[in-house]
Design a protein that fits this description.
Beta Polymerase, domain 2, about 180 residues, five-stranded mixed sheet
Length: about 180
């Protein structure tokens, strides 16, 4: 089954309000899903006998603050964050990339983390991936059973993989830079 066929199944099931785009002109084509629909779409991708995406290989956050000079002309976009899901079906030997686009800040209030519903009820491994994404990129996963930092200390300020992150000069008396 091709990415186009998977996309069509999803559009037929959920409509164009939930399935926002199909991007095929990249090395890894992807399907963009509305944040509010990611759990329902994930359950369908996991449970539907035609697909059976039983494995979440990776879930990560990406910060699109500003393109670098080389990509600026070919990659126009507004600053945003994305959650990227790499899925695999062992049964059908399929792979699929799904993305959810989020604003950099919830309600455009700087410092308020954007939110995306957790898929940890669909793929248990998402528990760890979402914690890492929360910790390093600053995306809050609503409905997550244990959303707390996983790599940085609990009192760490900021999210180190955000492109506008500024490393502190000192942490608990330890000099950084």
């Amino acid at each position: 089954m091709t990415i186009e066929e998977i996309h069509q199944l999803l559009v037929d099931e959920f409509g164009s309000d939930a399935i926002l785009a199909l991007v095929t002109d990249r090395i890894d084509p992807w399907i963009e899903v509305a944040p509010s629909s990611i759990v329902d779409v994930s359950v369908f991708l996991h449970d539907d006998d035609r697909l059976r995406f039983e494995h979440l290989n990776n879930l990560c956050g990406v910060d699109y603050l500003e393109p670098d000079a080389k990509k600026a002309k070919t990659f126009e976009h507004e600053p945003h964050l994305q959650v990227v899901y790499h899925l695999q079906s062992y049964v059908h030997k399929l792979r699929c990339v799904v993305k959810v686009k989020l604003p950099r800040w919830k309600d455009d209030v700087e410092g308020e983390l954007p939110e995306c519903p957790s898929v940890s009820s669909v793929w248990e491994i998402a528990d760890w991936h979402e914690r890492e994404c929360y910790d390093l990129v600053g995306i809050r996963f609503t409905g997550h059973p244990n959303l707390r930092r996983i790599l940085c200390p609990e009192d760490w300020v900021g999210h180190p993989l955000r492109k506008d992150y500024e490393m502190p000069l000192e942490y608990h008396g330890i000099r950084g830079k």
